[in-house]
Amino acid sequence: MQFLPSLLEYSTESLDKKIEAIKSDSQKFLEITSQTKPIKLHLDFVDKYFAQDRMVMQSLEVKTVLNSVNDNFGETSLELYIHLMGDTEDLLNDYKFFEDFTTNSNHKYYIFVPPKFFKTWSTNFKENKSIKIGIWLDKGNWNTFRYMPGVNYLLMTVLAGKSGQKLTNETMTLAMNTVKTHPDSLFLVDGGWEVEFKSNYKNLMIVSHTSFWNKFNSKN
After folding, report:
1. Distance between CA atoms of 99 and 154, rounded to whole angstroms?
2. I need a labelling partner for 29 at 20 to 30 A (CA). Which of 42, 89, 185, 211 fits?
3. Are 110 and 152 in contact (CB under 8 A)?
4. pLDDT, tens digit, for every residue of 30-79?
5. 131: phi > 0 → left, psi -120 to 50 → alpha, else beta; which?
6. Is 24 helix (H, G, I), strand (E, B) or coil?
7. Which residues lie closer than 8 Å to 185 by C-beta, 6 or more apart?
């Protein structure tokens, strides 16, 4: 099990600060995340119309963040786990972006889209070996979902896009049971997880925002 630090950013200043921190102390980064190289990052995006629908702030755009990552880590081997929180129009715009996007040969892009977009995206990006499409499921939608083997899944354990929510023990247990009963798929769980969480599941990655960055920025 490894931790994926979340870059859910609303300003370029905040994004630049976090990227510089990772570059400055990559050893501490790897120790806290239990990662081995290549470095793995989780990039969260709250798209325009999704944000309006849920009455939350829109995040930085995909282009802005990927350009910054490429500028700072262009020669570094990276795995980027990209969570696109958007409605139909948002995902159309995201698709157009990735259709024209020039991937970095040093980077792997794992893109998570809502279930109804999975077939189209996975078919159309099939020939691009740098991109792999997965499915993200919001809280309340994944405990009865019919999972397909070999697919990457992102399970939201709080409602997507809304900050300040708490991860409940019931949801945590349901998530771990899902990971356990589908060993042929990779699962990311996102929402309220602490970097102190322990698990032996090899098909599990924990996304952490507040907990990771608090620990990474501490002097201990």
Report:
1. 22
2. 185
3. yes
4. 999 988 889 999 999 999 999 999 999 999 999 999 999 999 999 999 99
5. beta
6. helix
7. 147, 148, 149, 150, 151, 152, 153, 203
